[in-house]
Amino acid sequence: MSDPNSPAEGSAADGTEGAGEDHTVELSTPVELSKSDATPPRLGPRPLERPEVDPETAAVFGRPGGVEGGFAAQRNGTPQRTTLVAPPPAALASAFGRPDAATPSLQRPGDNGSSNGAAHPDPFWTEGAERDPWRDPESPVALGPPAVAGSTPAEPVRGEGARLSLRELLFGRRVEPRALAVLAAVALLVGAAGGLVGRYTAEGAAGLTDPDPMISQTVPARERPPGSVADIAARTVPAVVSFEVRVGDEGGTGSGVMIDPSGYVLTNNHVVAPAAEVTGAQIEAIFHDGTRAAAQIVGRDPKTDLAVVKVEVANPVVATFGSSAGLVVGDGVIAIGSPLGLVGTVTEGIVSALDRPVRLDGSGTDTNAVIDAIQTDAAINPGNSGGPLVDSTGAVVGINTAIRSIGMGEGGSIGLGFAIPIDDARGIAEELIRTGAVTHAEIGINARSVSDGTTDGAQVQNVQQGGAAEAAGILEGDVIVRLGGRPIAGADELVVAVRERNPGDTVDVELVREGRPLTVSVVLASD
C-alpha cells in the first residue's frame, strides 16, 4: 500500500486526478492574457488538503504487506484468474443491450440543426426544421399565443315555440309526411298487440263461465282404511247411548257407553244425579238408530263422578275396553257423544296431557270429585259427559267428564277437555254393578296447595281424629311432597294419589316439618 503522504504521480493532462490515487495538484503557471482576449482567465482547481493518516488506523484498515491490488494472490503462488461471467440470454441482450451500430439513432443530429440550410439525409429532420425554435435550445423566450384554441361563443338559448294544432300538423306541411306515416304504423302495432292480449285473456276467463265445463269424474267407492276416523266411528257409535233426564219441568242431556250385554251403561254421576232421589224423575236412553228405552240407576259414586244405569234392550252393541296406562301424549283420540243434544257426534283430537288432577264443579248435584284426568283437545261440550273417549283402535280409554271454559255459566269447548281414565272407571263400574256402592282409601286430613318457589306440596290444615294420618304422626302444618313415590304438587294431587290406593294399603309419605324432611308410613283407612 502506498504512503498517502507521498507526492502525487502521473497527473492527467487535463488537470483531473488519477483514478484511485491521492495527490495534490499545484496551480499551473498563470496564463498571460492579451489585451485583445475578452475571456477572463480560468483558474485551476484548488489544492486538496488531506490530513495525514493515523498509523494505527492504517494498520487496521490498510492493505496487508505485499498486496498491491484489490485482490490477493492465491496461497499456492499461482496467479489469480479472472472468472468470466456467462453471456446473458439472447432475449435479455436484445431487450436491454446496446443497440447495433447500424441501427438509425433517435438522437438529434450532431450539427444541432445549424448546417446553414444543408439538406439532411436523416428523415428525422423535416423541411424548415432548423428554423423551428422548439428544436433550437438556444432560442430566446418569446410570448406566444395560448396553446388551446379560443372558446367559441355559446349559442343563445332558444325559447319554446308555439305548439302545433292538429290541423297544422296534418295539413300545414310543417311535419315530414314520413314521420306521420311512421307514427301511424307504431300506433297500429300497439293497437294490434293490445287486441291480441285482450282476446287471449277473454278466452281464458271464458273457461270459468263456460256453460258446459269439464267436470272431473268420481267413482262410487271411497277408501276408508281400517283405523281411520270413519272406520272407528262406524264401529263405536252404535255402542254409545244418549240420555235425556227429566225432573219436573226441567231436563238435561248426557251420554253413556254400553259396557255389558245385559244392558249396563257407564256414565257420569252428574248426568243422572238430578233424578237419583226425586220422585217421578225419568231417565230415557236413546240409541244411534233412534230407539228409546227407559233407564234405571244401578249405582253412583260421587267421589269419582261415575255411575252405572241399566237399560232393557235386546242384543245391544257393547264397546271394547282399552287401557289408559298405555297412552302417551300425542296419541290420537276420538270423543263420541251427544253435545248440546246432537246424538252421535264424533270429534277428533290428541292426548294433550296425562295424570292431570282436576276438581269437578258439581253444582246442583252431590258430585264432589277430584279426577286424575286424561286431557285432550278433542272438542267436548255440554252433553258429551259420560260418553267414551276411544283410541285409534276403537277401544274405550276414558269417560268424557269435564271441560274448561272461559266466562260465567256454560261455555263451549276451547280445546281443554278431561276424561276419567278407563283403568280407574272399569273397577268402579264393576263394583257398582256388584254392590251398588264403592269404598275408597282415606288418609284423614284436609290440605291446601302451597309453594315456596322451589318446592310445591300440600300443607296439612287439620288432622281428623282417629284417622290414618293421626295414627302415623302427621301434624298440622306439615307439607306433604310425595306419597307412595308419586310427587305431590298440591291438595288435588294428594286426593287422587290417595284414591289410587285401596283401603288397608301401607304407603310412605314424605313431608317437610319445620324445614326438615321426614318420612312416615301411613296405613290408609276406608271412607
TrEMBL record:
Keywords: Hydrolase, Protease
SMART domains xref list: PDZ
Domain called PDZ: residue spans: 432-515
Pfam family, one: PDZ_2
SUPFAM superfamilies: PDZ domain-like, Trypsin-like serine proteases
InterPro entries (UniProt xref): Chloro_Bact_Ser_Proteases, PDZ, PDZ_sf, Peptidase_S1_PA, Peptidase_S1_PA_chymotrypsin, Peptidase_S1C
Biased composition (Basic and acidic residues): 128-138
Location of region: Disordered: 1-159
The family this protein is said to belong to: Belongs to the peptidase S1C family.
Protein name: Trypsin-like peptidase domain-containing protein
